[in-house]
Amino acid sequence: PICSFFDTYSEGHMIAREAPKSSNILDRYILARWYETHAEVTHHLDTHELDKAARPIMPFLDDLSTWYIRRSRDRFKSDDEADALAARTTTGWILFQFSRLIAPMMPFLAEDIYERLSVVGKKESVHLESWPDIGVAASSILSDMEETRRIVTLALEARAKAGIKVRQPLASLTAPKLSKELAAIVRDEVNVKEVIEGTELMLDTTITPELKDEGELRDLVRTVQDLRKKADLIPSDRITLTITKDSEAIAKKYETELLHSVGAASYVMGDALTVSKVDTR
Fold this sequence. Notes:
about 55% helix; three-stranded mixed beta sheet
């Protein structure tokens, strides 16, 4: 997932040295995780416990890559320019800090990450940079996000037990109270229309005809995205989509959403599902 950031970041965004400010809960969470990790690594380096200093790095990298950046990928290319900028700014700043943090232990990886970034006042090497500044982690955000991820895990386990794939939308999930922002994350991760407050976690597994159609749309979008990837297309490339008779009803019903989701200018009927790049010159 980190590669998806560099694909977007290559547009030339400069990374400031001061910590970014964002109202997005995901940005605030990863900043809190950074400060927590940085404090732990710094402490163990100061006490010459090199093995303990290295331990927090992989859990942080996992949270950064498989949770924060994966959840933020759509934000990088969002029509909401302010949120897209916040996502790129936060990710770039975190990677800049991370490259400095791992420099003593993983010098070549640190240098590779650093070279990919455009930082204000950039040095010739990450090894000429100073140690990152200490900050204060917002513990409430960390515990709230941990609870959110726990609920997501349990809900996905309920889906698996019911034999319902994640791309199939469901009506609702009943779960302990969450903030509006965190409930939205659960809603997207579990793919439900609504998160309802309740004391017991319960997934509504009833699939209505409307939900079934939405699931077929998700499958179609996923297939087209796989075709785009195989054709080595980048997110900004526009395509003409050819669909088969089997997908015609879904394409007509959700035409606007389908075309927007796959970056298509239009679609035509054919014998096979294919994509072709539109020449915009």
